[in-house]
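Pipeline run #58 for the internal structure catalog. This entry was flagged by the ingest filter as a single-chain record with no existing model, so it goes straight to prediction. Upstream metadata was stripped on purpose; only the residue string is passed forward. Reviewer on rotation: M.T. Logging verbosity set to normal.
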Amino acid sequence: MTTTIEEKIDSIKKEMKEIIGNKHLYIAFSGGMDSTVVALLAKDILPKSKITLVNVCFGGYSYSKGLEAVLTLSKQLGLKLFFSRGEEEQEEIMYHGPNCNQCTRIVKIGKVKQFSYKGIVASGANLSDSWGNTGIKFFDGIYSPLLNLNKEEIHEILEYYNITIPKIGENKIREGCKYKHLLKMSVNRDYHSRADIIANEVIHDVLDFYDVQREIANVKIIGPLSKNIALINVKPLPSKKILEEIKNLLQNEETIDFVDIVDAALKLKILVNPGIYNNEESKYWILNGRLAPEFAMPITAEWIKSSNYKLWTFAVVDYNKL
């Protein structure tokens, strides 16, 4: 028998009532679809005075449009909003290579947990998150009410409440912070991190100016530690004029050494630590779960075992167009 959207919502709210009880709920609030749905459900079962939205702000790694969305939605929801800084902790993690899962667990959720007092922290973790696939809904004061739902079901709930999420334009399905587009170790904040921050703000400024509708839009920063290669990655590709304008702006940024446009399938040269290199499942997830959904064109990989013990995850060091 097919479950209606009302029955799904009622089931989640019933569980939320049982787990939260009379405690205060602190929602890790990004302004995205998942955390907004958690807030909408919480509003139905708790007084507003028992709900606090907490946004972990990553400074320059947060999109300006993303912060605007957080402010707009918190006002629309009528809920208290607090900001907690997390860029320093994020930089410590990314020093050892891209690691969104660890950032979510340790920084995003961890900072909210520090902020909370004798309450419960709610996350928007769901079936689409690799770290959300633990199957543990409530552990150590952290509750994930959407854990058994996929993105389509979460979007269905959002439509039921008739709420529109302001978009950055980064990814039609899942948006996040700029740091996920730095596909190498962030060893030097003024070189590696700056290239990522500037490039991924510039691209949206230009695309928004020309009112370009997109499914994906980001700039991937790859290359060895001594070279920042900026890959302009937009789907569908805008006009040549717009692409050249973005390219020229990025070429003028002193931390970017080379700029190219992702206009064909790519083969990425990916450096990984020995543990990942010897694990086919890990390599499959990096390529197909972490990287492919963020690229405008199909990608394959050439895997290289790293001897750099400081690299804990992976680094895309080069590429070839196919």
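catalog note: Residues 66 and 168 are 6 Å apart (CA to CA).
catalog note: The first helix runs from residue 5 to 20.
status: ready for reviewer M.T.
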